[in-house]
Design a protein that fits this description.
Layout (H helix, E strand, L loop, with lengths): L2 E4 L16 E6 L2 E6 L8 E2 L6 E7 L5 E5 H18 L14
Antiparallel strand pairs: 1-2, 2-3, 3-6, 4-5, 5-6
Amino acid sequence: MSNFRNVSKSDPCPICGKPDWCTVQYVEENTKLHYCRRVLGCSNIISGTNGMSYVFLKQTSDGSCMYKEESAYMESRKNGKRQTAETGAQTGGAQNRNPLP
């Protein structure tokens, strides 16, 4: 189950640095997703408030941009590749079923 909380003066949005209107979602263990409603450039960013790198994930239906801390993003990708190798499952991306000769 995930928990949402609004940013505040004591814990502002790491993307835009503002204390209101943005949201943080705690999803698993120490992983957080950041929903910024001000920075709508939809690209990776280095925070001006804490110096950390954030990876743009997607633009949500309300127009917010969803970000994840780069270290957590890289760890989840590494774990996903590890699970794929263990199960033999193929995930993500388009695959060319009819390769050219």
